[in-house]
Amino acid sequence: MKFSHFAALALVFMLGWGASLASSGSFTQSAALDGIHVEEPAEKGKSMAELLLEFDMLEKAGAVEDREKASPHDRVKMEDIKVYNDQVVLSISNPEWAYYVDTNSMDPVIDSDANTIQIVPKTKEEIHVGDIVAYESDFHEGIITHRVVEISSDSDGWYAVLKGDNNDRADPGRVRFSQIRRIVVAVIY
User: Fold this and answer.
1) Which fold has domain 78-188?
2) 21-31 per-position pLDDT tens digit
3) Of 14, 63, 107, 135, which sits 20 to 30 A from 123 (CA to CA)?
4) β partners of residue 153
5) Which residue in 12, 51, 10, 11 sits closest to 28, CA to CA?
6) Does the global pTM surpass 0.85?
7) In the chain, where are the structural domains located?
């Protein structure tokens, strides 16, 4: 068989295979919308533009109230993260490792199977709204890891209000800097 015959046969096979996939709906379409990469199976009868419009409308429907939430402060810069085929190296000074019991208070971000890398803050200025911190409570035994939802001061000085992401209410009492043990800088699943 000549090479041109082989190439023609391969082309016919590829076209048939592609048509078979297209008719079965096995192809996926992907596109970017406002910086979001969307990859969804193509719905029969809908164009990618129609699917993106539906996605955009869904996002806007949920935006009735302010959905912006404070995120943890960026402590590990891109240049401090090295990813290799067999390892990941994070350049973090004085890291500490933590694991968790199953309280569900920080679901879905931190659960009993998660591990975190944490650092010890030296000053209260290192604590930001949105950070997840480990602290000693006056109202509970052991270390609690919750998110900072407010920072303020009163006659006793600086304090933070903390709340578990999955809890309905903030933790009792004001948390002073002396109670904060560590700041979560990485969650590993």
Assistant:
1) Umud Fragment, subunit A (2.10.109)
2) 444 443 344 44
3) 107
4) 158
5) 51
6) no
7) 3-64, 78-188
